[in-house]
Amino acid sequence: MKIIADENIPFVKNCFSSAGEITTIHGRQITTEILKDADVLLVRSITKVNKELLEGTNVNFVATATIGFEHIDIDYLKSRNIGFASAPGSNANSVAEYITSALLNLAEKYKFAIEKKTIGIVGVGNVGSRVEKKAKALGMKVVLNDPPLQRQTGNEKYRPLEEIFNCDIVTLHTPLTKEGIDKTYHLADDKFFTSLKQGAIFLNTCRGGVHDTAALKKAIISKKLSACVIDVWEKEPNIDIELLEMVDYGTPHIAGYSYDGKVVGMIMIYQAFCKHFGIEPKFTENDFLPPPEISEISIKNEKNPLLFAVNSLYDIGKDDANMRRLKIEPADKRGAYFDGLRKNYPIRREFQNTFVSIEDEKLKKILESIGFRV
């Protein structure tokens, strides 16, 4: 069996080589020619998998080690009877931890009390529901918006978009869809930003196409937004440098890049692969996750203990600093620099791997609720 895989899927060679001959390659360099005699294609989000890529190949199983699959033409795969798998929920906790770091760092930067803020979460699936849990743990009032879930469940906790506009903070966690009543392409457009309350904070960690770049820049310039965090960009990897200079924190589509999330995503597609081909799985995520570098944090006299604990494991400011070096790159090298930040992303472990020693019972409860062991 011949397997072609994105080289940015961790341990993919170690895991899948037991089942066949595996070749890894940069996700943007996977072509029809390379796939000609391949049986299996394993990708992340940067490879467009469609008729143009697969026509004339022997590929009969495709998997993406990501929660989203907007880059996969599912209808085409079905028409060719090609098996498919994704990794729903694998990096959801990672994104929620990224949002937690972003919020706490913004609160420190602008000197506001996070527990007095209202956050509107647009999209309440695997990621949004975890963001909700962590936001509530921080004492925030949460407003949820998810029209498909509202129709499916009839649950009144899912509120109209108009109620989101009254929130202090708005964060997007939807898939990217370009058709239908729940279309999310350019959901955050001029009308969206105009409707927000004055001085709102905006975050997007889902897909770049869910916000309209021109409208977002206008909202920042006009001071409609008081702060902005962007992890996903239109036209990646060739992003808008002007927008990068405007945002408080800009990162290279790595919100879901915790080591735990990437390994779990790899194992999820490995298990689906084994099931498809009738192979007995040999590995679980425990075979690939090393002990955490920071297993314990002691908090005694820190001025901002929550921020200290979170930044000890994930400080969004470090990713932002690396990202801003992109602007000194020659224009024709910026795309490669963006991709390089993702490919060479350092190991980032999730909160549950670390024990926090702290005496304050209130803070202990908050830390435990956002994922730490206490």
Helix content: 25-40%
Give the helix tally: 16
Elements, N to C (H/E): EHEHEHEHEHEHEHHEHEHEHEHEHHHEH
Number of strands: 13
Choose one word for the global shape. Answer: globular
Mean of residue pLDDT values? 97
Widest β-sheet, arrangement of strands? 7-6-8-9-10-11
Q: Classify the oligomer.
A: single chain
> Terminal Cα separation, in Å?
47 Å
Please name the CATH architecture of the largest domain.
3-Layer(aba) Sandwich
CATH superfamily of the largest domain: NAD(P)-binding Rossmann-like Domain
Structural class: alpha/beta
Strand content: 5-15%
Identify low-pLDDT runs. Answer: none
Describe the model.
This protein has a 6-stranded parallel β-sheet with strand order 7-6-8-9-10-11, sandwiched between helices. A 5-stranded parallel β-sheet has the order 2-1-3-4-5. Strands 12-13 form a two-stranded parallel ribbon. Helix 5 packs across helix 6 and helix 5 packs across helix 13 (305-313). The model has no long low-confidence stretch (mean pLDDT 97). With 374 residues, it is α/β, with parallel strands linked by helices. It is globular. Helix 9 links the parallel strand 8 (169-172) and strand 9 (200-204). The chain folds into 3 domains: 2-86, NAD(P)-binding Rossmann-like Domain (Rossmann fold, 3-Layer(aba) Sandwich), CATH 3.40.50.720; 92-250, NAD(P)-binding Rossmann-like Domain (Rossmann fold), CATH 3.40.50; 296-369, Ribosomal Protein S8, Chain: A, domain 1 (2-Layer Sandwich). The longest helix is centred in the first third of the chain and has 19 residues, at 92-110. 37% of the residues lie in helices and 14% in strands. It has helices spanning 12-16, 32-35, 51-54, 74-79, 92-110, 126-137, 147-153, 161-164, 190-195, 213-221, 241-246, 259-277, 305-313, 316-324, 334-343, 361-369, and strands spanning 2-6, 21-25, 40-43, 61-64, 83-85, 118-122, 141-145, 169-172, 200-204, 225-230, 249-250, 296-298, 355-357. The termini are far apart.
